[in-house]
Amino acid sequence: PAFPIIALCLFHQSRSFPDVLDELVPAARGGEAVKWFTEAAKHKDVASQYLLGHIYANGLGVSRDLRRAHMWFSLAAGNNMEKAEVARTALEEKMSVGEISSAKDLAEEWLKAQD
Asked: How many domains does the chain have?
C-alpha cells in the first residue's frame, strides 16, 4: 500500500527519471507498480500515466507493449506533460503506422471508460 506514495514522491523530487526507475524496478518486476499506477491513473494522476508508459515500453513487470506504452504517454501528454509527448514521439520511431493507430484507439477507449 505504501508503494505508490513512495514511488510518486521519488518521481516528483528533482531527481532524474532513470534514477527513479532504477528504484522502482524491483517493485515493477513484481507487478505492484502497474497495479498502483493504474489505480492512480484512473484518478487522472499524470505522473502515474507517464510512469506506466515507461513500464510498458521497457517491459518492467509486464510484457513489453509499445501500443500500451504509447497509450499511457498519450494520456499524460493530453494532460499537458511535455516530457510524455517527447517520450511518445521517440516511441513512435519504433512503431509501425498500424501500431500507432491501434495505440490511439486504446487511448480513446481508456478515456471513454473513465467517463
From this structure: 1
Q: Which amino acid is at 107?
A: A
- At 89 the pLDDT is 97
Distance CA 105, CA 9 (A): 31
In this prediction, residue 57 carries a pLDDT of 93
Under 8 Å between Cβ of 74 and 88: yes
Distance of alpha carbon 31 from alpha carbon 107, whole angstroms: 21
Contact of 53 with 64, CB cutoff 8 Å? no
Q: Residue 2 has what pLDDT? A: 43
* Residues near 61 by beta carbon (within 8 Å), at least 6 away in sequence: 27, 28, 29, 30, 31, 32, 33, 34, 55
User: What pLDDT is stored for residue 1 in this prediction?
Assistant: 41
Domain span at residue 50 reads: 3-114
Q: Are 75 and 50 a contacting pair, CB within 8 Å?
A: no
Q: Which amino acid is at 62?
A: V
8-37 pLDDT per residue, tens: 555 554 455 555 555 555 555 556 778 888
